[in-house]
Amino acid sequence: MHTPLTNYWRKLIILALVIQLLVIIFAERDRQLSIHSHQREALQQLAPLQVRLEGLLTNNLIVLRALAAEVSLDPDISGQRFARLAKELIGKDLHIRHIALAPDLVIKYIYPLAGNEAAIGFDYRRSNSQLAAVQRAIERQAVTVAGPLDLVQGGRALIARVPVFHQQELWGVIAEVIDFQRLLNDTDYRDYQQHYRLSIRGTLDKIINVNDESFDYFNVLGDQQVWQQTYVSAKVSLPDSQWQIGLVPHSGRWWDWQSYTLTLAIGTLLNLLICFFLGKLLFTQKQLRHALATITYQAHTDNVTQLPNRADFIRKLDQRVNEATHTSTSFAVLFLDLDHFKEINDTLGHESGDRLLKELAQRIQQHLSPLDTLARLGGDEFVVLLHHCETDDSAEQCAKTIQKALRQSLTFAGFNLTISASIGIAQFPQHGLSSSTLLKHADLAMYAAKQSGRQTSYVFNEALRHKAERQMQMHSAILEGIKRQQFYVLYQPIINVAEPHAGMAKVEALIRWRHPQYGDISPADFIPLAERTGAILELGEWLLQQVCHDWQQLAANGLPLTIAINRSLREFNDPDKGKHWLTELSKVGMPAQSLVVEITESLLMRKRQRQLKILHDLRQAGVSLAIDDFGTGYSSMNYLREYPIDCIKIDRSFLKDCPQDQRQVSLLEALIKVALSLELNIVAEGVENPEQLALLKQLGCQQAQGFYLAKPMPASELQAFFKTLG
């Protein structure tokens, strides 16, 4: 009886044999391709040799044919005329050793004569060795080529003969001796011998198939063993015969033995590795099943709180929607966002923040029924599926219970914390019939709860949906307004109030929007929306370019002012943003010292290295940095010392009831003293009357801005305003 383990090994061995067979087939196919490739390459290299050899032979035989034509016209040609013609025809680029005229088959003239005198009077009919070749030429009445033959005087030569007829009667023959070695040398055949063994053989038969071995071949040149191996060849046509040039690699193989062996070795090694890993898999199945279970769990679970994640919650919500649709029941979705958790997380650190999230999740879970589902969507956002919740009142009661549980103070990482949440509520089926709609509407209700002051809950209504749609329309209108130049910039002067004769220290750039349909839209309406939707990036880029253009115009008119410009937290998420701003300044020749970047306290509270690096780079380049609306956020004296801040702008709310409200005056005085002790410049915003201005001077504030001092104005009016200051 075969156990599952035995069957597994049997299958593994069969698989190994199949893979090895495939390796052999692949290696053999690769070898055949290599053979064909090398043979094709050799044939391509052989073609020029064939052409050169045929061409050189043809050039040498042209002399023979030309003399034959001349003699057939003038059979009584004299020796002098023959010598003159031969000298003219035999050029230096030919390989003719000598040429002889044999009327009546007896050599009468020979050129050149020197060294060949003994051949005069030679009768072909008395030489059995040459008579057959002469008769062959006469029978064919065409040029014949014999050889190569070993010459008595040394060397090897081809002998070409042509019969000459006069008035259809045989006159005789003309013989031409061609220096075979010189002819070969001019073909550069030795170049081929670097990589190949070369051989040339000839036959008196007409070669149709170069691989046909049935002909009677004779050796012309080279090693005849070439023809016993796998060769490539090309034929060379002669007047009465043909030669065949053959090439074989020196190794005798048209394929790379090392490459073939390496392919087999690598394939075999891979086969062994595959079998090894498959064998190892046999012993790791348990671990694999455990790993798959872990992956499945992680795919549906938040790794911080161990609660269901977004994907798993939506799956469960889809199931509840289908169930409630068929049973005509109701349920509710609660969308929770922890108030100010980002600031807490940045203060405690992410590791402590994760442990805090886990603690808060446990608090919420304790106040839910076993049927309810709590999930973490990410960050500080949670959702609750209340499986049986028929009314909005029931959902709100559950939300209040969760709020109460979260607000219980706890000591964590050395801090005494009180956490609250903003909760949005959406009810099925009143507020949506699908999972995505319910989540979206609960999310909108949560944002409404935040805008209502946080620490509260809000039930979705149609007004929220309409508001969200209006916000999307406003977002599109902002982007369209930038394209259509609907935005413009006003500049509000900032006055030096500490000097005896007040002067303009700088101006603040204020963006405005004049919509063609809705008229002037307040920045308080479109700036927060742009921050939420991301359109603030396009607005910020447009504002910077417009400020640079206006500064260039003012500088050309002799008023190179320092301009303060507000920058959004979102813009600092781009690590190259600071370099980009400096580049925009350099395009118009605006010094970095002429720009003040105003940021909010929240940017420094986050302590993100990317954002802080941008601030340091700007400060090092000469740009001044100011904190706008100082005192309205989580103000901390620490970051005023740690970060490269030059100026704080005290929010207008601190001047509102001054100088009548003494407590407000004391608070204002404390802020100014702290800034002065840190050697920071101070700008007070919202100066509306002379009493406030006098108070600021008394408290030591250096600069101020407000409607009492100067209203925002176009860049074109700054020149005239500057003159009014003297």
UniProtKB/TrEMBL annotation:
It comes from the Bacteria. One of its GO terms (cellular component) is membrane. GO terms for molecular function: catalytic activity. Residues 471-726 form the EAL domain. Gene3D superfamilies: 3.30.70.270, CHASE domain, EAL domain. It is found in: Membrane. Residues 329-462 form the GGDEF domain. Residues 103-246 form the CHASE domain. It holds the Pfam family CHASE. InterPro entries: Biofilm_reg_signaling, CHASE_dom, CHASE_sf, EAL_dom, EAL_sf, GGDEF_dom, Nucleotide_cyclase, Rev_trsase/Diguanyl_cyclase. GO terms for biological process: signal transduction. PROSITE patterns: CHASE, EAL, GGDEF. Keywords: Membrane, Transmembrane, Transmembrane helix. Its cofactor is Mg(2+). NCBIfam families: GGDEF. This is Signal protein.
